[in-house]
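dumping this here before i forget
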Amino acid sequence: MFANSDFYEKLQDNDWYYMPWKWEHEIAFNLIGENSKVLEVGSAKGNFLHSLAENKNCSCVGLEFNKKAIEESNSSKFQVFNSSIEEFSKTNNNSFDIVCSFQVLEHISDVKSFLAAKVQCLKKGGNLIISVPNNNSFISLDNNNILNFPPHHVGRWNKKSLQYLEKIFPLKTYKIFYEPIQEYHKKWYNETLNNQVKSITKNHFILSRIYWKLPSFLKKVFHQLLLSVLKMTYKNGHSIIIIFKKIDD
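structure:
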């Protein structure tokens, strides 16, 4: 399922990979009703499922490949299986009110079989929740971000490509949310935009010629002006969430 499962497993051994509660968890948590039956694909240490089971009495199941994460997610409130969604879907057709994944789809090489299996597990009228890095955000400007390239990320997603899934699967877009710039991303965000300004003033055919003819104090003004334009253009944070409803085939 993953483009490079050995690489992925080693990556998951890093503690920073498992943020216990992210922006997208909060969005999804508020959308999921009490007593829902929830499947999370790529459940990591199970923080999201634990919160749903504890606070909303949801019946939760997780799928996770990392054995260390499965051991640490051991809970009497939900089950976690070391299984692919493709295998799991064979015996869980139309079983869940919610099927979700957070920061998983961008790692998947066989997107069609992965999503088809998730949709198969979902009841008609149920919600498919997907969170991925938004490649229309500032992250698309960071050419030095090796984690946004293979073998880590094998696919890049944005609103248009996510909504295109409606043409392939029995899904209808219900809601879309864009992540605000998070405090822990601000340094990355500012450095990325500043580096982009430097690249423009160095390489842009017209703007570079204007920039290098300016006196020093106007260069600073020009830099700030370009930076302001970029901040207006790239005002969203790292990720995007899309919620689909499963419709009749």
